Amino acid sequence: MNKVKLDVSRCKGCFLCTSVCPKGVLIPSTELGAKGFEIVQIDGAKECIGCGACYKMCPDYCIEIIEEGRQ
Amino acid sequence: MNFTIPKDIDMSQQASWCPGCGHGIVCRVITEAVEELGLSDRILTVDDVACGQFGQFAMKYNTIMSAHGRTVVTAAGLKHARPDALVIARPGDGSAYSIGIESTIYSAVRNENILTIVINNSVFGMTGGQMSPATLPGMKTATSPFGRDENKDGHMVDITKLLGQMDIAYLARCAVNTPANTDRTKKAIKKALQKQMNGEGFCLIDVLSMCPTNWKTSEIQACEFVKETQSKYLPLGEFIDKGGKE
Prior knowledge:
The structure holds 2 protein chains of 2 kinds. Chain A is an alpha+beta fold. Chain A contains 2 helices and 4 strands, in the order E-H-E-E-H-E. In chain A, a hairpin with a 5-residue loop joins strand 2 and strand 3 (about 40). The radius of gyration of chain A is 11 Å and the shape is globular. By secondary structure, chain B is an alpha/beta fold. Chain B has helices at about 25-35, 55-60, 70-80, 95-100, 100-110, 150-155, 160, 180-195, 210-215, 220-235, and strands at about 45, 60-65, 85-90, 115-120, 125, 130, 170-175, 205-210, 235-240. In chain B, the strands form 2 sheets. In chain B, strands 2-1-3-4-8-7-9 form a 7-stranded mixed sheet, with helices on both faces. In chain B, strands 5-6 form a two-stranded antiparallel sheet. The interface between A and B is medium-sized, with 27 and 26 residues.
C-alpha cells in the first residue's frame, strides 16, 4: 500500500503529474491553491502503485510517495 | 519504494519558475545524483542571469551568479581556485550557445575539469521567448513570428556537432519530458560528476527542457513538443564518453 503525500501549497497547477500517472490517482481539482493556480488532488477511489512517475515530473517538489511499512 | 524530496532541496522557499518549467526537475535530478554519490558538502554551482538563477532558491548548495553568458568560464575559474570542490555550471541555451559560445568552446578546448548542464529550451526564456541559437528551424518565437528561416537567421546550433570532435571527457544530450528521461538525465549527471572527481576533464550535458510560457502551449503539450519535435532536431544520447578510470 503506497501513500501519496501532496503539498498543495507549492502546487502551480501544471498537471504534469496527472499526465504521467498510470492509474489516474492524481486528478485536477476545481479549487485554487495559495498561488492562485488550480491545484491537483488525489482520487480516493484509485490505488497508487508507487511507480514514482508523478514525483519525477513535479517541478515544484509537491509530491512524495511513502510505501507503508517503510521509512 | 519511497520517493522523498532530496535533503539538498531547499523546501523553506520556492523558486518562481513558471508552471511546468523543466528547471525545477533538473534541480531535483542534480540533488538526487549528488546525494547518491554523497558529495553534498563539496558542490559549488554557478548560475546564469536567466531563468536558471532561481536554482539558488531551489538547491542548498553554495552558488555564484555569473554575468550573462560567462557561466562556464566562471565555473572554470572557481575550479582552479577550489580544486577540491565539484563545480557545476547551469547556463541556459540562450547563454551558453550565443553570447557565451566562446566561453563554452574554449572551456572545452582547455578541457576544464567542470560539469556544465545546459538547460536547453530553444528560446531566451526570461526576456520573453526570443529566438536563441538553439531555436528549431521553423519554430515561432517572439523575434521569429513566421518561424525560424535558416536562410535568413542562420542554422540552429547543435552543441554535440560543435564539440563532438573535441578531446573532452563527456558530452551527452538528455531530456526531462518523461519520468524515464529524467532517470536517464540523473544517470548522466552521476557519470559526469564521477568523471570530474577522477579529473578527466570537461563534461557537458545538454538537457532538453520545457518552456510552456514562451512556446505558447500547455504544460503537457510542451512535454509532447520535446518528444515529437525538439528531440528530432536535437537527438538524445551520449556523444563522447572517454571511459577513463573508474
